[in-house]
Design brief:
The chain folds into two domains: 33 residues, no CATH class; 52 residues. It is mainly α.
Length: 100
Amino acid sequence: MNRRKKKDEKLHIWCLYSKNKVVSYEETQKAVQIIMNACRILTGYTVTSIRSSSMTKQIDQGATKTEINRATRHRKGSQAVANHYDKNLNDKIRTRLAKL
């Protein structure tokens, strides 16, 4: 991958240089796949699955909800992390319940 040229520094990071336009919401997945291919990351993963996996890993490593919200750019006080990504990490609770 080439570095951005000085004249392109002001352009949006998600820019299709071939079409000279900013990537729309629908084209973001394709843009991420191009970057992933350039980095030799296996294909077949969606942006959503990568984001979910990243957040789940952060929770597993002990990151606080505030730290995860900052890293993923969720708004302050968002419950998105607690509601959608804090999953399969409650092994201690399962173990305690199994002993009852």
